[in-house]
Amino acid sequence: MTGIALRPSREPLSDSGRRQLARRRARLSSAAWFLSPFVVLVALWAVLVPALDVSPRTFPSLASVWAVFTSGVTDGSLWTQVFASLARVGAGTGLAIAIGVPFGILMGISRGVSGFFSPLLRFSVALAGIAWIPLATLWLGYGTGAVVFIVFNAVFFAVVYTTMLGVRQISTSLLRAARSLGAGPGRMFVEIYLPGAAPSIVTGLRMGMGFAWRGLIAAEIIATSSGLGYTLFLARQYYETDVIILMMITIGVLWLLMDRFLLAPLERRTVERWGARRQVGT
Amino acid sequence: MSLLSVENLNQVYTDAYTHEEMTAVGNVSFDIPEGQFISLIGPSGCGKTTVLNIVAGFIRASGGSVMLAGKPISGPGPDRGVVFQDFALFPWKSVEANIAFGLKMRGVDKAERKRRAREVIELVGLSGFEAKYPHELSGGMRQRVGVARVLATEPTMMLMDEPFASIDAQTRRVLQQEVLRIWEQERPTVLFVTHDVDEAIFMSDRVIVLSSRPSAVQADIEIPIPRPRTWSDVYADPAFVRIRRELMAMLGVDDDEKGS
Ligand SMILES: Nc1ncnc2c1ncn2[C@@H]1O[C@H](COP(=O)(O)OP(=O)(O)OP(=O)(O)O)[C@@H](O)[C@H]1O
Ligand SMILES: [Mg+2]
Question: Is B116's C-beta closer than 6 angstroms to any atom of ligand 1?
């Protein structure tokens, strides 16, 4: 890194090489910026809890949380909970995409369909997530089914809505071009509407999964006997603040990892590949 | 025998907010014999795009009839290839996939699609760009893809609505000559909309002039300039100079100005 700063500006460096270096440097510094508040928080925690002699019933020490973490990793129990939660998110999200995208496309194509469902959709968005937990447990019982339903619910409404908007943003001339080249309804769906709405769909997916992640924790607290949310809540009964804090950290970190390494790159890549649309459309 | 016959075409638009009716196309009739290159010109807003969109099947006419090879038009179809002013390329498809799209829709197998696409790519001078995406191309190259995409399906008619309007003047001249060169090889029937008088004369066998709204055919002029044409020859051709003056006068454009 330092060598680059010292390089005389006139020295030839290939364009792509320079861009790559700049990108790597930008990425490192953004990662550093991203982590810095957490570092400060952990440092404060390490210093303040012993210094103020906080009772472990109120807030755990860094060391005790670390101990719970390492034992959870070695005996595998932490992974079991993480996996249980991720599997539910995966199932609910998969279902929501499978049903939400086609439905959203239909809403985008047909004014009639969107006119009919729009009020319902808007009404449901306000409720999406934990408000459904009571009904979900009544319908599907206490268990994975209810939690998956909550995740599904959160992702579904976000995806339907953004898919619809994405379809509506496809330019008229693009639709006309496809039709005049002989694309029937089925082909239009696969070749035009789906890829045309893709950047918007991915944005909706990212947003929906944010809701879903929160809904998941709440649903697990109420409806199941496994997963991060359940473990978090169970610990409260035994005043295990170290477990509570570890679960909270795990929930937050998992979301950050998922968002940063799965959803954000996915969104960036689709939008980049499609970036042309803005130029082509002018 | 005329391939396309437009008779008493009439188009009334209703304003979406005021619900006022406005007659864009009053009464337009013309025929295009097979293999002819026809330009449609006229003042802005006179309904050139409207006529083209009706022929393409994108909009339904309020009145009159449009027959292609003796059959009424009932929607868009691959027998009429459309080249758009904004190119309308699929941004998520490579140059080759864009060009092969029509063949894919027709169920042509992959190997044959590739072969035909390569052929057309060669024809429009895009060799080496097969794997590029539209946003990686210049405006001129994008419109080459637009033209190639239509040529690949060998339509009976090509419809072009100001295809070169958003391309810089120099590239436009090159593309006009290129399209003529290709046209001379394949001889599709062409309906070409433009507001550029020079372009209309240079490209066409016939120029049809529409009057201002509500439009009717104001003039229908044969262009007796021999083909193959190049810009340097055409500029010096006395017929070009004469027809240009005539058309400029008709459109009410000042003659000492170069047609825009
Ligand atoms: N969908 C529509 N709804 C209402 N009015 C329309 C619609 N499309 C076109 N018009 C009106 O019809 C008239 C003719 O439009 P059209 O686009 O066919 O003209 P044009 O000759 O192609 O013009 P230009 O040279 O500017 O491209 C214009 O006054 C336009 O405002
Ligand atoms: Mg127009």
Answer: no
